[in-house]
Structures are given as C-alpha cells and as structure tokens.
Task: inverse folding
C-alpha cells in the first residue's frame, strides 16, 4: 500500500522521516472488487479516523458505483499520539461484472420433450426447480403443469473472477389426453362405423377417414387409426386405435317346400355343418308344417367358428292350407224327387248318400239326416275330405193366433201366425198390419217359406165390427150466471168427456165463455166404442157498472148519466137514454139501468144527488179540499197522504170525462185547467187503494 502524506505540512514530513509513525497505521489493502460484489467494509488503523472519498463515514465502499470511474481514491485521516494529523489514501479498482441474459423460452406443452435453453454469454452453468434443467441447459417438462411455472437460472464467472446470473420462469401447459374407445372388433359385413374418441373436435389419420369412419368391407385383418387433438394453447395429444376385422364363413340353407298343412316334419339342410337353427325350425333343423300352420314361416341358420364372425342365412318356407270345403244347400224338402248338392270349391268327388255330381233323391231318403262326403285336391297338391250330412225336412205347418176384435175405423193391429216371418196378403200389409175401415168381412192369406224354400199357405177370416152410435141431445146457450144443468144422452151407461161433470152435469158459471165441447162415448161388449159430441155455448152475463154520476148542482141543467156496458135502457128519475134534469129541488133521486146482450140480462140502481151549491168552493165531507177558485190557470188539491196517485179522473157535470195535466208534490196536487171551459167538475183521485173526490167550480 502506498501512503500519500500531505505535502503542505513540513512538520509531518519531518515526523515521518524521523520514524514517529507506526508501519501498521493507515488503510489496509482493498480491492479490486466486482461491481456486483455488494458493500465492502474497508479497514484502517488506528480506529476513530475520518474516511473520505466514495465511502460512508464507517468506511463502507459500494462497488455498484460501477467500473466506469475506476480506480476510486479513498482517504483516511487521524491524529498520532502527539496530536499530529496524518492521512492515508488507497486506490480501489472496481471490475465490470459479466452481463448475463437467458433467452426467452416457453410456454411449453408437457409432452413436447426436452428443450435446449440458451443464454449469453456462453460457458455458464444451468440449474433449476426439481432438476428440470441439466447443467448444459437442457429443460425437460416431464413433471407436468402441476408445478408450473418452473424457475431456471444461469450463472457465469469471467476471467477476473466476477460472477453474474439470470433467472427465467418457464410455464408448462397441460397437453390434451384423447381417449379412443377400444377394442374395435368388426365383421366384414358390418356397416361403416365411426370410431369414437374424446374429446371431440380432433382429427384422424391412418386407415380411417378424417372423421374416424372405418369401412369393414376392406376385408379381414388389423387396421389402425391415430386420433389427434390440439387445444387452444396449441398443445396436441394423440391416441392410437386398433381395429380388427374377423373372417366370416357364410352360412347357407338349402331350399325347401312348399308344404301342405298336413305334411310330416321335414329336415332342413345347411352348410357348414354344426351351426344353429332358429325361427320356425327346431334346434335339430326340423320344420313341422302341421305345427306352423298355413302361411309363410321364416327359418334361419347361423354358423360361428372360433375367431371368426357369425353368419346367418334365412329361408321363407311356405305352408299351403288344405282346401276349405263347404257344403251348400244341405237342407232339402222331403217332397223333392231329385236334387243336386253343391260344394266349394267345385270339381271334387261325392260319396255317401250323394251320387256322382252330387245327385240325391229326397223322396227315397225320407225326412231325417243323411251322411255325405266330398273330397277335393287343389293345384298345390293339397287334398281334403269333408264329412257332413244333409237334412230332409217336411213342409212347414201354419197356425194362427187369435187377437183382439177389430172395430170399424179402429187402430191398426198386427196379425200373428206361426211360424213367424211369412208374408200376408188380402187387405193387410205384407207384414200383417190391418187398418180397419168400415165394418166388413176379410179373407186373409198367410204364406210361409223356410230357408230351404219349403213353402206353405193358409187362409183365415177376419171380421171388422160396426161401432155403437150414441146420441147426445143438444143444449144451450147458457148464461155465465146460470146454475148447474143436466145434459141428456142415449143410450145410458156411457162416459161423458170434456167440459162436463162425470154424470153429465154442466156448470155454466165455471165453464169458459164461448163454445165448450162436450162428448159422450159408448163401448159395446166387443170393445168397440162410438162417440157423439156437441158444442155448448156460454154467453157472458156482463154486470152493470155506473159511471161518475153526480153529485150535481141544482142549476147544472140537463146532464146525461153514464153506465157500462153502453146501450142499455135507463129508468127511474132518468130518461130512457140517461138524460137527467138538475133543475129540481135539491135531494137524492133513484135511477135504474137495464142491459141485455140477447141471451143474458143485467139490471142495477143508483142514487143521483143534487146539491144546493150556494158556495163557490165546497169541501165534501171526508174527501178532498180543492182551492182556490180557479179563475187563473192552476188548481191546487190537498191530498189525504203523500202516496203516489194511481188514478185521476176529471168529470164534467154532463158526465163527460177528460184528461188534464197535473203535477204531484208530496200531499199537494196541481192541475192545469187553462184548457177546459168554465163550469162545475168532479175530481176523482185514487191513492193506496182508496178513492177520494172533490167538486170544483172553474170560472174563466
């Protein structure tokens, strides 16, 4: 180490020259340092001095200041034992550290294999997590993505002894693991199959097309396919598929049949031997037409050998039915000399009671059952025999059943005969329905033919009886007010019908006004009924009802009385036409009214009151109050209550009624009398079922 003493102090130089300083004092040797070697503690004696230059107060030097300013001067100052200041300095060299950089790598698929990493400068040493990289920088992602990312680092030391390193994180991605459904063992006759693999979306190569379809018709042998899937990260995975196509030896059934339905069991030949029968054949290869029955029946033969595919041949066997034989017209009439039987299908042979061609002799055979046979062979060679019998029957016997007697013009009825199902004629319908007209005698025929055309006919006599003729004596007309009336009919013993009592009592009071139909019926011993009827007229006896006649004032002059119904005759104090002179002494006068409609008459009496009328306004006892003297346009009537008016009449002294406008306000009634002439009038009001009246004088 060199010590630079201050040249400004001659004293110090003298002291140094005199050997007053110790050879161990000052800064100890330091450096050179690599710029990445970290903080360095410098050492100097004696302690307690002051450091200067690119160090801190404790003498710590930081090489990271770099090599560009190297060497760096560092000083150390202190005082000796005599208090003289001393200074020492040193030159510290900082060396440049190597610049290390690992080239980018990854992400890598886990199945990509070992990858050579690179870095600069070359010649360094590699290391990493889990030993995934060897010292030469060969990285193998075999540990998979479960430990990803992997840290690798690269370090190098240069000729100056300076070292540096770099670190890189390498991501390892999961590679797809496709799965092929195996094993695939097929037969040459199989349809094209698609080899199934997961996940979907991959591609195929090998003996399959791009979609994995394989055609077994390529023949027996071993085939392969490779399924590859690439994910969105670009990682790929593959899985192989082995496809085996087995040999197939064709089974073959020999033709057989057709058979008749009654044929014996037949053995079915097939090759190669030792296969398996199925369908309508039993396990030994026998086919039973009798068990199978008519129709077409499928049989099969399957042959299988070790290591080969089963093959099957099938055969459709036909079993023809035996001809269906049917005897036609097997019932004959006993009176036939000859008859020919027929059967289906035609063309067979007859036997038994039937001769050649189906000839039979019913008169010789006689009534009863007789055996016959019929045999037939069809175009397929199948034969059948029908054993049956024919019936020879006598002609049918007809009988009649008695019914009710028929009355003239009575209801229709049906005749009955046995056996049923025949045809009627002679005044009846074919079904035997007789509709009686006038009394007469009918001869009716019944004809019956059975299913074998054995026919018989028989006549019967039907008598249509006359009806009894009762007489109902005419009666009426009657008034509706008449008492009970006994009607008369002959002969007695009949029944009364209609608007009349059971014994022929007619009640005009309860009968309908107008015509009332009354009937009388009589039934004889045969059950035939006759009816007579009359129309009994009831005339309404109309009651007399008087109009609003009075009271009148003694000076009202000549008035005309009113009554209902009109057209009657007045009497008493009134003239025949109802005229009444009020110019009389006030008092009560008796009048009568008589009315007749030509059949019924009514009469009634009434009392006419003539008052003095000395006041312009009067109140009639227990009735209404009308005020004021209606010289103006309105008349006010005080009502007994506030109930709504159901009737209002305005009657002049002459008896003529008229309508006038009115308005009701609670218990007050206002009438507009502006349109009526001056004079004396009666007002009649009906409220709540009661009637009230008032006499008023109108003077315009």
Result:
């Amino acid at each position: 180490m060199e010590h630079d003493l201050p040249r400004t102090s001659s004293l110090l130089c003298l002291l140094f020259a005199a050997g007053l300083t110790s050879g161990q004092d000052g800064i100890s040797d330091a450096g050179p340092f690599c710029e990445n070697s970290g903080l360095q503690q410098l050492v100097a004696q004696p302690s307690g001095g002051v450091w200067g230059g690119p160090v801190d107060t404790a003498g710590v030097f930081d090489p990271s200041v770099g090599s560009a300013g190297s060497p760096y001067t560092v000083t150390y100052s202190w005082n000796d034992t005599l208090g003289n200041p001393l200074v020492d300095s040193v030159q510290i060299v900082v060396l440049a550290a190597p610049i290390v950089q690992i080239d980018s790598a990854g992400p890598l698929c886990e199945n990509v294999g070992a990858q050579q990493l690179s870095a600069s400068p070359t010649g360094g040493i590699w290391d990493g997590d889990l030993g995934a990289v060897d010292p030469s920088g060969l990285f193998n992602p075999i540990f998979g993505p479960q430990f990803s990312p992997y840290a690798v680092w690269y370090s190098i030391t240069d000729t100056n002894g300076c070292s540096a390193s770099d670190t890189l994180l390498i991501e390892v991605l999961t590679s797809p693991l496709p799965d092929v459904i195996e094993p695939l063992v097929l037969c040459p006759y199989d349809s094209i199959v698609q080899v199934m693999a997961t996940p979907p979306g991959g591609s195929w190569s090998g003996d399959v097309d791009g979609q994995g379809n394989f055609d077994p018709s390529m023949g027996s042998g071993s085939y392969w396919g490779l399924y590859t899937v690439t994910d969105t990260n670009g990682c790929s995975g593959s899985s192989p598929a082995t496809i085996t196509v087995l040999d197939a030896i064709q089974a073959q059934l020999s033709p057989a049949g057709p058979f008749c339905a009654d044929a014996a069991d037949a053995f079915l030949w097939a090759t190669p031997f030792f296969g398996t029968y199925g369908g309508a054949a039993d396990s030994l290869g026998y086919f039973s037409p009798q068990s199978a029955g008519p129709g077409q029946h499928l049989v099969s033969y399957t042959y299988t050998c070790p290591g080969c595919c089963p093959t099957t041949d099938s055969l459709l066997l036909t079993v023809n039915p035996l001809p269906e034989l049917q005897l036609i017209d097997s019932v004959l009439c006993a009176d036939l000399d000859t008859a020919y039987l027929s059967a289906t299908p035609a063309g067979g042979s007859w036997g038994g009671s039937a001769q050649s061609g189906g000839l039979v002799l019913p008169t010789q055979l006689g009534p009863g059952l007789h055996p016959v046979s019929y045999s037939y062979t069809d175009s397929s060679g199948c034969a059948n025999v029908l054993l049956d019998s024919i019936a020879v029957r006598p002609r049918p016997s007809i009988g009649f059943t008695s019914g009710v007697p028929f009355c003239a013009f009575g209801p229709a009825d049906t005749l009955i005969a046995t056996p049923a199902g025949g045809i009627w004629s002679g005044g009846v319908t074919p079904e035997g329905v007789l509709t009686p007209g006038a009394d007469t005698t009918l001869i009716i025929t019944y004809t019956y033919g059975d299913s074998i055309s054995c026919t018989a006919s028989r006549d019967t006599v039907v008598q249509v009886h006359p009806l009894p003729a009762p007489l109902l004596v005419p009666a009426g007309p009657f008034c509706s007010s008449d008492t009970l009336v006994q009607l008369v009919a002959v002969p007695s013993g009949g029944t009364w019908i209609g608007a009349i009592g059971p014994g022929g009592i007619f009640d005009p009071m309860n009968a309908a006004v107008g015509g009332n139909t009354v009937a009388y019926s009589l039934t004889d011993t045969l059950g035939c009924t006759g009816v007579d009827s009359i129309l009994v007229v009831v005339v309404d006896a109309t009651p007399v009802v008087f109009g609003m006649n009075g009271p009148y004032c003694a000076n009202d002059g000549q008035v005309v009385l009113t009554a209902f119904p009109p057209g009657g005759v007045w009497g008493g104090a009134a003239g025949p036409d109802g005229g009444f002179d009020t110019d009389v002494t006030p008092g009560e006068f008796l009048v009568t009214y008589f009315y007749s409609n030509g059949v019924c008459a009514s009469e009634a009496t009434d009392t006419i009151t003539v008052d003095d009328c000395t006041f312009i306004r009067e109140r009639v006892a227990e009735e209404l109050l009308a005020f004021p003297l209606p010289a103006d346009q309105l008349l006010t009537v005080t009502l007994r209550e506030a109930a709504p008016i159901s009737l209002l009449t305005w009657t002049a002294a002459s008896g003529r009624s008229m309508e006038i406008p009115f308005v009701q306000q609670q218990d007050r009634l206002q009438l507009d009398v502006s349109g009526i002439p001056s004079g004396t009038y009666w007002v009649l009001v009906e409220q709540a079922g009661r009637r009230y009246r008032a006499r008023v004088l109108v003077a315009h």
Summary: The chain has three helices and 76 strands. Residues 39 and 671 are 136 Å apart (CA to CA).
